[in-house]
Amino acid sequence: MTTATADALLGALRARLGQDWVWTGADAAPYLTDHRHRLHGQAIAVVRPADAQEVAAVLRLCHAAGVPVVPQGGNTGLMGGATPDQSGHAVLLSLGRLNRVLELDTDNDTITVQAGCVLATVQDAARQANRLFPLSLGSEGSCTIGGNLSTNAGGTQVLRYGNTRELTLGLEVVTAEGEVWNGLRGLRKDNTGYSLRDLYIGSEGTLGIITAATLKLYPLPAGQGSAFVGFPSIDAALAFLSLARQRLGAALTGFELIGQPVLELVARHVPEQAQPLPGLAQPWYALLEASSEAPDGAGAALLRLAEQALESGLLADAVIAHNLQQSGAFWRLRDEAIGVAQARDGGNVKHDISVPISRVPAFLRRTADALQALDPGLRPMAFGHLGDGNLHYNVSHDPARAVRHLFALEDRIHDVVHAQAHAQGGSISAEHGIGQVKRDALPHFKSPLELALMRRIKQALDPLNLMNPGKVLS
Ligand code: FAD
What is the ipTM of this complex? Predict the structure, then answer.
């Protein structure tokens, strides 16, 4: 890339989008660092198109100049997918101005939104129409639908409603060459060939840019209840999950496992956060959520379930939230306090693995043993969506030693945790994607044929390798 090429492209982008929407220097800088401030990139410019036609124009200009494009939504991704590399040869395309709700169809139970809509805005729009858009993540105040689609985001309601993929009926996508594919179909049945929609979902911006989506809506539950429970063992937690599914069926909307060391970390670093159960005497805890058609039905169902499980010994302790305030405090513990405690602790080595639910106990035991063998000071901090077999298996440092000892072992810790997940038939990325952070690990856990098939798809849809290069595939 010569300076003349970059300058010519900058001029063409400014002519098409207007001076105000092509940023360089200090204006561009905040977009070039990832959410955790661990990755820093460079770009010719940050561009902020207003609609799909402008996105297409940017892609045509970049395609003609042979310049890569890195799409970015809310920049809350944890795998560095939205951060360009250090070469400075790419254009970063922010979807932030594509932020309109285009249509809400209550008869079809669908909402059509532009890709830069913040997730919380979509949830609010649905609620105002007395509907539920169930995708729910800790980052929902900043992440965008386009980012959710591109990472196939999960969150706390997957147990009942599925990942972003299961919530999506149609997409609008701009191809690497700058064509606009309008696939915004609100159809629940459409068997007319290859599912391009499913190809783009989860592709992390490496095949094209999603500019809009038609998403499924659900009835807004009249009642919701939460319970916080303690288990004598991880096997009891699994048996209780199975019982809860039998008893509550589709009313069970969340089941968040939290290890006792995680709650201790919260107690140490976030003392202002109320602990739902005193003593922290059990090795495992869980936060459950149930929904109901009657306003008070969910709390009553959770109470009956907890009583039965306490009697049979599956539960060692339980508390049912009596009101919205108490329920809110339970969820703040899960959604906010754990993250704050980990940050105040000096950071940790993070993982986002999944295994078949039945293999969770074996994964936990074997991984803890393998980490002890690596360094007896390592402290596993496991929590996550047990109902999806998805654990955020983070590893903290020995409080008696400086955190740099932990980060010196970072690569070896990843190797141990990923190998153990793989050995249990699991995945190294349950919901955060691959991005640049896990790109080099991927070939160790996918067969050569699976990787070759992925490369053929990439080659077909992006032959010049201009769509978010260096992400997912090397
Ligand atoms: P970005 O970070 O901007 O981008 C993510 C990837 O998608 C990049 O590869 C980018 O190039 C690509 N991309 C973005 N927009 C588009 C587009 N329109 N077209 C094509 N490609 C695009 N994730 C979960 O799955 N579950 C959780 O529970 C969860 N909790 C989180 C909690 C916190 C506090 C934080 C900080 C993150 C959490 N995440 C979670 C991760 C993150 O929020 C999700 O991955 C989210 O979907 C990213 O959305 P975004 O708009 O921020 O995307």
Answer: 0.99
**Cα 399–400–404 angle (5° rounding)?**
75
Name the percent of the chain lying above pLDDT 90: 92
Question: How far apart are alpha carbons 370 and 361 in whole angstroms?
Answer: 14
For residue 431, how far is its CA from the centre of ligand 1 (angstroms)? 9
DSSP at 382: E
What confidence category does residue 1 fall into, taking pLDDT thresholds of 50, 70 and 90? confident
Does 223-423 carry CATH code 3.30.70.2190?
yes
Mean pLDDT of 64-69: 97
| Distance from residue 447's CA to the centre of ligand 1 (Å) | 26
Helix (H, G, I), strand (E, B) or coil at 473: coil
Would you say domain 101-219 falls under CATH 3.40.50.150? no
Ligand 1: lining residues by beta carbon, under 6 Å: 35, 70-78, 81-82, 95, 115, 137-139, 143-144, 146-148, 150-151, 153-155, 204-205, 209-210, 339, 431-432, 435, 468, 471
pTM over 0.90: yes
| Ligand 1: centre distance to CA 407 (Å) | 24
CA separation for the pair 199, 194 (Å, rounded)? 9
Confidence of residue 347 (pLDDT cuts 50, 70, 90): confident
CATH 3.90.950.10 correct for 3-94: no
pLDDT of residue 294: 81
- Cα separation, 169 vs 189, in Å, equals 9
Domain residue ranges in the chain:
3-94, 101-219, 223-423
